[in-house]
Amino acid sequence: MSTITADMLAYLNELAADIAEHGGFGDMTIEQAMKEAHKRRQAFAQEMADQKTARSKMAAEALAAAVWIRLSSEGAIKRMERNCIWITS
Fold it and tell me: Do 75 and 52 contact (CB within 8 A), yes or no?
């Protein structure tokens, strides 16, 4: 039995949001809706990589900021945990 990892769950949440944003399943099966949502996500990722539109440039900057914030906050949490261990030992 395979386990769903955090990154898999995050992508499934993206697909679910995309499907909901586009009106749900309609006449499609779940599998078809997932494939369509995946195609849209891939197309947008390629658009961001190409950075030929204002939208793609803004999205790429927002993504970079989100990654930086997450990495910074994770580092801060690790430092806080380390300091708490030093305080209590």
Answer: no
Over residues 31-61, the pLDDT tens digits come to 999 999 999 999 998 998 898 899 989 988 9
Residues 9 and 42 in one domain: yes
Packing angle of the helix pair 6-21, 30-50 (nearest 10 deg): 100
The parent domain of residue 12 ranges over 1-50
User: Contact at 8 Å (CB) between 11 and 34?
Assistant: no
62 and 88 share one domain: yes
Cβ-proximal residues to 55 (8 Å cutoff; 6+ apart), any chain: 47
- Determine the 3-state secondary structure of 15 from DSSP: helix
Tokens representing 42 are 């891939």
Tell me: do 5 and 44 sit in the same domain. yes
